[in-house]
Design a protein that fits this description.
Helices cover 38% and strands 20% of the residues. It is of the alpha/beta class.
């Protein structure tokens, strides 16, 4: 039996910010017996590049590009995986019709869709511990509901045995999820290689796509395990 830690972060997730029609929820996955070593190696990369601050997509710049490329190299050469649900056309969301009037209910559905995938997270013979970045003051309530959803879905035998909110500065592996989710939403929002876009961010997206073999604003193969993206589009509202 194998145990894995899943570190979840979100990008452009605010409910009513329709200026950003895109949102993404993704995780970095790490076997528990590699977790400590992975964090140590990432810290060593930070020290090497004299960049001790949090890893964030918003901090990608020309001077930091070698640092971020080395992080990408580290991810693709080590037993770490990434999966993301990319939600396009956020303004189409009709919570009244599909989610009992609640954005939170939609959020729980997406978390379930993100985690419960037979290719990326087989439920037979594995155990998963899930860590979510704190986004608001209702963390405890949301954790309780997520636990309830998974307990019900698996009839009390869920392999997702632990859910906990942490702050992003507590985990370099969580910070990698921020980096990838940020890159994905940046391209999906049409900001990639525009007249005003950040050249360093454009180059890093090119680097991620070269390493992964995929365009990161689209779905990957569903059985892809290393770098998996699900392009999820809400149904158009009824006229």
């Amino acid at each position: 039996m194998s145990t894995y830690n899943l570190y979840i972060d979100e990008s452009c997730h605010l409910q009513n910010d329709y200026s950003k029609s895109i949102m993404a929820i993704g995780y970095t996955k790490c076997a528990t017996d590699f977790d400590k070593e992975a964090k140590h190696q990432i810290k060593e990369i930070k020290i090497k590049h004299r960049n001790l601050s949090e890893i964030k997509w918003s901090k990608v710049s020309g001077s930091r590009l070698p640092f971020y490329k080395e992080l990408i190299d580290f991810f693709f050469s080590n037993p770490l995986d990434f999966r993301c649900v990319l939600i396009k056309y956020k303004e189409r969301l009709d919570h009244e019709q599909y989610n009992q009037g609640s954005h939170d209910n939609y959020y729980y559905k997406i978390i379930y869709l993100l985690l419960n995938n037979s290719y990326t997270n087989p439920t037979i013979g594995n155990i998963y511990r899930v860590y979510l970045d704190i986004k608001d003051t209702r963390g405890r309530e949301k954790i309780a509901k997520i636990k309830e959803v998974f307990t019900n879905k698996f009839d009390g035998e869920s392999p997702f045995v632990h859910f906990q909110h942490i702050r992003s500065h507590e985990s370099e592996i969580l910070q990698l999820a921020d980096l990838f989710a940020g890159a994905i939403t940046f391209k999906a929002r049409g900001l990639y290689k525009t007249d005003n876009s950040n050249p360093a961010k454009n180059e890093l997206i090119d680097y991620i796509e070269m390493k992964s073999g995929y365009s990161i604003d689209e779905s990957t193969e569903p059985w892809e395990t290393k770098f998996n993206i699900l392009d999820h589009q809400p149904k158009k509202r009824n006229a």
